[in-house]
Automatic annotation (TrEMBL):
InterPro entries: ArsR-like_HTH (IPR011991), TrmB-like (IPR051797), Tscrpt_reg_TrmB_N (IPR002831), WH-like_DNA-bd_sf (IPR036388), WH_DNA-bd_sf (IPR036390). Signal peptide: none annotated. Pfam families: TrmB. CDD domains: HTH_ARSR (cd00090). It comes from Candidatus Magasanikbacteria bacterium RIFCSPHIGHO2_02_FULL_41_13. This is Transcription regulator TrmB N-terminal domain-containing protein. Residues 8-72 form the Transcription regulator TrmB N-terminal domain.
Amino acid sequence: MNQNITILQNLGLGSEESRIYLALLGLGGCAASLLAKEVGLKRTTVYPILTSLAEKGLVNVYFRQNKRFYYAEKPAKVAGLFHKKIESFESIIPMLESMDKKQIQMLGLRFIETIDELREFYFGILDEYRNRSYIAIGNTNIWQGHDSEFFLQFRKDRAMHNIRTKLLLTADSVKINPTDPALLREFKYLPQKYAFKSTMDIFDDKVLISSPKFSSLAVVIAIPAMVDIFQTIFEMLWDFTPEEKVK
């Protein structure tokens, strides 16, 4: 019996609701007075619980000779009621997830799900950072690998907008990293042992992090305190990273 009560409680019923439902199943239906004696509760306590169970679809009420008789709904039908509730909830999951993302954005986070969204972000940077500069830490192979044609052109467009960048790159980036000074890029290579696959673009008011380990393509963090930490870490790493390139 205790196990049955626990299972019903896991479905959202209260302890007394569970006891009364199980008692009605055993009795096969009865008046509230008999049910109260069966479960050891006052009749005035049992009535509101029966009303609650009836509203939830777990109890049916019938009148006989001007008296109310209560019957427990069949367990299979109760299971069907809960199944319908689950189906109803599942039908609104996309809307709820959308609401959750909006809430996350209000907290200073934005998830980029598609390559089109990522391109749109970088297009915005061209206008926002014209005649300015920003810093980045990353793996050129991974960054460029998102869309090679787009990012090769983006470097050129960035220079045309007079946007300067200061970059800390993984050692394996040397294979494809361009050295043309016309691209307005200043860069250093990190030691070989720091072989990570993520990329961080650090701007004045936000940080874009892309990583193959994310479920999303990238995340934008626009929390001032965190942006400040990323900027400070970059400058510290830049100061301690030697000028020599990887051979």
